[in-house]
Each structure stands twice: as C-alpha cells, then as structure tokens.
Design goal:
Chain lengths: 193, 193
Amino acid sequence: MFEQLFKSIQEKVTLNEDDKEVYKSFFIPKKLRKKQTLLQEGDVCIYNAFVENGILRSFFTDEKGNEHVVQFAIEGWWITDLSSFLTKSNSIYTIEALEDCELLLLTMEAREALMDKIPMFERYQRLLLQNAYIANQARINSTLTETAEEKYIKLGLAYPGIIKRVPQHMIASYLGLKPETVSRVRKQINTRI
Amino acid sequence: MFEQLFKSIQEKVTLNEDDKEVYKSFFIPKKLRKKQTLLQEGDVCIYNAFVENGILRSFFTDEKGNEHVVQFAIEGWWITDLSSFLTKSNSIYTIEALEDCELLLLTMEAREALMDKIPMFERYQRLLLQNAYIANQARINSTLTETAEEKYIKLGLAYPGIIKRVPQHMIASYLGLKPETVSRVRKQINTRI
DNA sequence: AAATTCTATTGATTTAAGTCAACAGAAAAT
DNA sequence: ATTTTCTGTTGACTTAAATCAATAGAATTT
C-alpha cells in the first residue's frame, strides 16, 4: 500500500526504515470506487491525498454550468484543493475517482505533525509545491500560445498514460477545448501520418 | 529601503528588531532604470528579487516571435524565474523594469543561509509560494472560462494599480489577448456605462 | 524644435474554435 | 438480453477574437 509513496519520497529526499514506520502511522489508507468523490464542491477539503493506485480528476463548474477539469492525478501523484485545504475555506472543486483508487490521506494536523517528526518531509512537500508551481506556469504559457492541436499533442507527449486512461471529453475540458474540437484535431493528426 | 520588505514579512510571520539587521545583511540593494533588465532570456536567474519601488514585468518570446507577459511585480511583490533560479537552468524569460525600480536581491546562497538563521523566513517563503500557486491556479481557470471582457474587468478589479501603470498592450499580452481586442473591450465597457 | 518611436483607436476581413444537431458503437445498468 | 447512458465522430453554421492596415496623438530622443 505504501510502495508508490515511498518511491516518490525517495526520489526527492532521503528516507530510512524508521521513517517508513512513522509515515505509516500518519497516513489514512482509503479506497474509492469509480465515480465516488474525495471532495464535493462546497465542502472544506480536509485531506491531502496521495494516489497509490488509480486515477482521479478535480473539476469545477462555471456559472454557465460547464465543467472544467483542473487536474488529473495518477499513481505517484498528489491531489487536493490546496486553497481550501490550507485556509479551510469552502472548495469550488470536486475531486472524483475515474477508476477504483487506493489513496493515502493526510489531514492538516497529520501533515504538520509529520513535518515536525520528519524534517525531510517538509522539504519533500516544498519541492512538490515548487514543481507544481512551475508546471502551472508552463500550463498558463501553453494556453496562451498554443493552438488546439499543439495543446493536444504536447499533453500526449508529456502524459501518455493520462490520455489513454481518461475519456476524451475530459481531456478536452482539461485543455480548455470542446470535445468536437479534440475529435477533429485527432482526425487531422491521423490523416497527416 | 527595507520598509516594503519588512511590511511584507510582518503580514505573514513574526519579525523582531534583531531579525531586521540580519535581513539587511543578506539582501543586495539594486537600482534599475526603466527598460533595464534583471534577467535576460538564456541566462541563469541568480536572484530572487523583492520590489521596494517601481514595477517590472517578466515575459518570454514564442517561436512566432510574439512576446507574452508572464507576470507584473509592483512594490511589495517578489519576482524571479523560479524554475531557472531553483535548478540553475537557462531561463526562457526576460525580467525588465517598466519604471525606475529599487530592488532587494537574494542569491540562492543568501536565501538558504537566511532560512538557516531565521526559520520564520522559510515559513514566509513557503507561504508566498502557496499563494503564488493558488493565484496561478485561478489564472488558469480564468483563461479557460472567461471572455476577453471578463478577463479585462477582473484584472482591473484585482489589480487596479497595474492597469493604471502599464501600457495597454502589455495588459493585453498578460491576458492572452491582442491590443486591438483590449481597446475594443474598453470601448464596449465605456459605452455601457 | 523636429524627428522618431510608442501607444491606442478604428474599420474591414479572416480564421480557429465553438455551437447545434444527428448518428452510432461501446459500456453499464436493469 | 435489452434498454439506457456514455462516448466519440461528422457536418453545417456561427462567433469571438485575430489579423491586416491606416491613422493620430503622446512621449522620447536627438
């Protein structure tokens, strides 16, 4: 159950056997069936979730009633509404399992206690946040400069696993495109090969 | 010279008089004239800059030769290319003064030493990063859901100081719009009043 | 003071992506 | 097994914003 988590931590900071037991005592294992939610729009996001297995998305609904996918998270990734989690404000996002999932959950209290006990965990968290910030910056640049086709191709290159496992209309939503547009982009790409 | 910095720190964490002297010894004061750059595309970004006075922008140039404004920074804000700064990679961004500026610069070594000496500075930095991450998330959502007019109006509401001090075509660039579009949006808004 | 560059506006036209609608195979639910 | 829902495709048409081009006042530079 903790393989992916320890792998992720070891990629960024040192991790010894004693630490592992501490980690095990702070995370809450949780299974989620496909279509079940970890967070509902309007609720406070009380968990920072690590994905051991499966895939989830976070999304919000705009005033016109359209859903917008904000993030996908597969094995080895974290997912939460950071704003709601940190400030205990009501979330505008829903986090939903797209497949059956195995998660490891961390409450704010557990997170802080863990940072106290294992300083390297604080560094790990900071590195994650830095990477997430840089990735978001790249995503903004992408939406501002690329055509529909470029966006789709780059996503496929960066995260082939996600494009294969997620319905196409959710990929479209993540890219800020309509399903019809993604369908046409794919057709276009295929006829060029 | 340090008023804005101390004000910013005090808004987030505790700050005593001894700390102030430590801070003063680590930051490098730097004046920049309008149009001078703190970072040139292709160079490694070796400074994390705090703006005491003035206004700057960071931007990049895409393959088609179009400039895209990534960030503005006014008094009390930080600006850097975080990716280049952290990984010592060559930056794709240029950081340029839009007015004469007074900056306080922090090298990576000074930043780490400061975090060592003043643990509260690490917390302050983490809080800044969290806020920046949340703001970027909101910006992504905005570009995916809002019309040109909504983007312009919201920017004006959120940062009236920036819209007043920066040429309109840079506002357009920041919003992912063309100058002509912003001009038309403004006309539209005015005729409705 | 004159020349040059920068900035913003407006009009005419184009275009990338959106919208609306119909269809059909795949997957899930009963 | 057979409805029902989900998912992806395609065609016809619309639209928001981009593009191209001309203009002119403001700000800088010389």
